[in-house]
Amino acid sequence: MSYTVERATAADVTALVDQRLAFQRELGRDPDAEPALREALAAYFAAELDRTLVAFLARDEATGEVVGSVFFVIVVRVPGGRHGNGRMGLVLNVYTAPEHRRQGLARRLMMCLLEAAREADLARLELTATPAGRRLYEELGFMVDAEGLTPMELIMSPAATSTTAELIMPMRDTLALITPRPTSGGTTSVTARGARP
């Protein structure tokens, strides 16, 4: 099979929403239980794409169908120390449709993302690795954060479990992804500092 990988544009909002919902289902969540989520995601992508959000999509050349994606959200923190210039990227939604896996799409998507992160002058990228993805991320230069801090978060409102939580997820996840996450959920927090493939 042949694929193209391209940076998402405003014309791709529906595809971005579909990819986000597919990724959520893959994690065992039920985004269909929140009827307002699709509309909220569409509004988020329309507002943030190429502002605080950069996304890449993989398409099957034969059908034109979007079969994979990767996003990063730009987060600005206080500069210095581990934060460098303060510009960070939170990697989200590294996803390939099951029938298109083992074709190298995740690697191609991540290579595009790394180049865009360099162009955006990001000091650091953070992600949470699933067991299936961890090897790829390590091959690309990501490493488990060794500072030994414990990730913590505080949900400020019961509404955080509703569609609103999906809208603030990038900022919420950032706090939980700084250091290794306990493995009870099968994920490990991984960090890259200026990684070069």
Describe it.
The chain is of the alpha+beta class and about 200 residues long. It has one domain: 3-Layer(aba) Sandwich (Aminopeptidase). It contains 5 helices and 7 strands; from the N terminus they run E-H-H-E-E-E-H-E-H-E-H-E. A 7-stranded mixed β-sheet has the order 1-2-3-4-5-7-6, with helices on both faces. A hairpin with a 5-residue loop joins strand 2 and strand 3. Helix 1 packs across helix 2 and helix 2 crosses helix 5. The two termini are about 25 Å apart. The C terminus is likely disordered.
Give a short overview:
This protein is an alpha+beta fold and 197 residues long. The chain has helices at 13-26, 37-48, 105-119, 131-139, 163-176, and strands at 3-7, 53-60, 66-76, 87-96, 124-129, 143-144, 188-192.
CATH architecture: 3-Layer(aba) Sandwich
Largest sheet: 7 strands, mixed
CATH level 1 class label: Alpha Beta
- For the CA atoms, what is the radius of gyration? 16 Å
Looking at CATH, which topology would you report? Aminopeptidase
Helix content: 25-40%
Classify the beta-strand content into a percent band.
15-25%
Low-confidence stretches: 163-191, 193-197
Counting structural domains, the number is: 1
Q: Give the terminus-to-terminus CA distance.
A: 24 Å
Count of helix runs: 5
What's the CATH H-level superfamily name?
Gcn5-related N-acetyltransferase (GNAT)
**What is the N-to-C succession of helices and strands?**
EHHEEEHEHEHE
Shape: globular
Strand order of the largest sheet: 1-2-3-4-5-7-6
